Amino acid sequence: xxxxxxxxxxxxxxxxxxxxxxxxxxxxxxxxxxxxxxxxxxxxxxxxxxxxxxxxxxxxxxxxxxxxxxxxxxxxxxxxxxxxxxxxxxxxxxxxxxxxxxxxxxxxxxxxxxxxxxxxxxxxxxxxxxxxxxxxxxxxxxxxxxxxxxxxxxxxxxxxxxxxxxxxxxxxxxxxxxxxxxxxxxxxxxxxxxxxxxxxxxxxxxxxxxxxxxxxxxxxxxxxxxxxxxxxxxxxxxxxxxxxxxxxxxxxxxxxxxxxxxxxxxxxxxxxxxxxxxxxxxxxxxxxxxxxxxxxxxxxxxxxxxxxxxxxxxxxxxxxxxxxxxxxxxxxxxxxxxxxxxxxxxxxxxxxxxxxxxxxxxxxxxxxxxxxxxxxxxxxxxxxxxxxxxxxxxxxxxxxxxxxxxxxxxxxxxxxxxxxxxxxxxxxxxxxxxxxxxxxxxxxxxxxxxxxxxxxxxxxxxxxxxxxxxxxxxxxxxxxxxxxxxxxxxxxxxxxxxxxxxxxxxxxxxxxxxxxxxxxxxxxxxxxxxxxxxxxxxxxxxxxxxxxxxxxxxxxxxxxxxxxxxxxxxxxxxxxxxxxxxxxxxxxxxxxxxxxxxxxxxxxxxxxxxxxxxxxxxxxxxxxxxxxxxxxxxxxxxxxxxxxxxxxxxxxxxxxxxxxxxxxxxxxxxxxxxxxxxxxxxxxxxxxxxxxxxxxxxxxxxxxxxxxxxxxxxxxxxxxxxxxxxxxxxxxxxxxxxxxxxxxxxxxxxxxxxxxxx
Length: 758
Ligand code: C2E
Ligand code: CA
Ligand code: CA
Description:
Elements (H helix, E strand, L loop, with lengths): L1 H31 L2 H39 L7 H15 L3 E5 L4 E4 L4 E3 L4 H7 L4 E4 L10 E9 L2 E10 L1 H6 L11 E5 L5 E4 L11 H5 L6 H10 L3 E5 L4 E2 L3 E2 L2 E7 L7 E7 H30 L3 H20 E2 L4 E2 L1 H14 L5 E8 L2 H8 L1 H18 L5 E4 L4 E7 L3 H16 L15 E7 L7 H16 L6 E3 L2 H22 L3 E10 L5 E12 L3 E3 L1 H11 L2 H21 L7 E4 L2 H4 L4 H12 L6 E6 H6 L1 H13 L3 E7 L8 H4 L4 E4 L1 H9 L1 H16 L3 E4 L5 H9 L4 E2 L8 E2 H9 L10
Parallel strand pairs: 19-20, 22-24, 24-25, 25-26, 26-27, 27-28, 28-29
Antiparallel strand pairs: 1-2, 1-6, 2-3, 4-5, 5-6, 7-8, 7-13, 9-12, 10-11, 12-13, 14-15, 16-18, 16-19, 17-18, 21-22, 21-29, 21-30, 22-23
The structure holds ligand C2E and calcium ion (CA) (2 copies).
């Protein structure tokens, strides 16, 4: 009898122990995965997703580049058709491609299936001829075609001699892209830089979705922001509650993360998830895995009778595993951002935050290093960096590998100089990381630092992180080892940029963008010969803004393409009105952004506009910057020819600021050359400068290119330019850019006759 009770008692105790174990797991896990951290993890998972894709696309590219060098070995364009075909077929088989095509510097591509086709309008070939590798969906060539194309340059001894394209079956590519972080509760989109949806994670029906705006709806407030990040391929993380209905999901709030896939030249990954579903995921996951663990432990306890000893053992082990998942960065062999954030927040709450500095340390040229050395070597390098940092941080200091190039550190400090000295000391050890055994450089690692100091207005992770980030951005533009400290100016500049992005669409609708016109003059007659359109933005709060304040932002976020079209339409409208009044027709020049020049629709859109207003294209001069022309020589030549075929006039702007050799002039089909103001200033200063400008003018003359000198600020300059044979001038000396009505009065009013240079 007594024995029975004893057994019963032991069993009861063990059962209770089992329940206790289960319960303690449940609560500890829930603490571990605190719901606020879910958002951050979501972002990190999106980054992981992007890098997984990158690993795949990189292997595709590497193989194809191998094939390209095989083509180069047999002489590329110089090989006979038969030789080329034999090698293409062989490479196609070896690479497992659906089709492999080669195109030389002329426009006919030759395919492994025996056909030839014209590629002059294919932007991806153009980009390959400029040295870029891309991978994209071929849908833009034909709607039905579901396959992918990877295009790489073929490099010979003397530079790029052609391009090679592989057609990959959709199943092969998409098989490698189907990854789910939340067991299908999330939607993962693969987007190209125009926001077009290339692929959607399995299990989600978005069959009618063509662009990201079909998912977000057209009226989304976040549209500008999306457009900007998608085009730049930079990371984005948002929690969006208001004004947004993601049409396939119903109501928000949502978590949205976006990350560019570098090396594709094209793609980014976007992960979207309803907040409710995200939390549900963590809850379910915690409960189900814990329930199982609890049952197992219960059985172990029951059978094993070692009782609480076993409990202790399993509890710590399992806790460690969960801990590692949540707090460890396998790739860099160190703690991750979740751990770091926790540490930073704890330290700053319990100690005086002014004694701490938050340092964001970036490895320069990280992308390049990764492409060059490969994932394994990079992981090795990061692990070594992690070890060095570990042995350098003191008690109550923290560091982590955030992602990619980025390490974050929380360091205690007394003053700036001491902190910089410490970073320099650290850098001394870090530079050794990539030395080979004999001590020679494999590649010298360099770093840039952004620093934010703790203080009354900065005593938490998020504030310090974002400030250090701004400082780091600034440091990135500087040389190796640059250390930049956060200042309020950085903040206001970023705020200003954000506001500009926020307001730009309204500005277009509200006609806040104004066209100013600056007259230009013929030097031999002295009379006005046209004008250049220069944009101004009359902002309701910020006042009149010059393009220097916003054009660069628009270039980055792609809005400039819309703006250029807007400006063109404004010019056409004016020309129509003035022609109607019987005024003398004079050509108007328009600055065209790089984004638009590379947009295959641009010329057609421009033609459509001139036709709509009945404007003769030879009254429109497209100005494109020298740098843009030189950077995109291959494609732009064709586009310029196309413009000229339709009667538009083509001008090369800011000549003398880029790295053009004189020979460039022979190779680009421009009608006009605008000599930059700096060039002119040099010509005034030295004889040599004068000789340079003189020979440019002479060469332009021989090629029947008109020469305009910009930024002429006094009459002496005009005289000098006339002596040198320059055709036209433009500058403050004769007229500043004028608002519409003032210009009309100036150019066509009763006193217009007086507007002479001489
Ligand atoms: P840009 O095409 O080189 O334009 C010439 C700039 O020099 C203009 O500045 C003009 O006001 C200024 N300028 C003219 N004469 C003189 C002078 O005698 N001395 C000096 N120091 N400067 C002179 P702005 O208007 O601020 O434009 C700056 C740049 O913004 C332009 O450089 C152009 O690249 C860009 N931009 C202006 N309007 C547009 C536009 O509608 N679309 C695009 N894509 N870019 C534009
Ligand atoms: Ca210009
Ligand atoms: Ca210019």
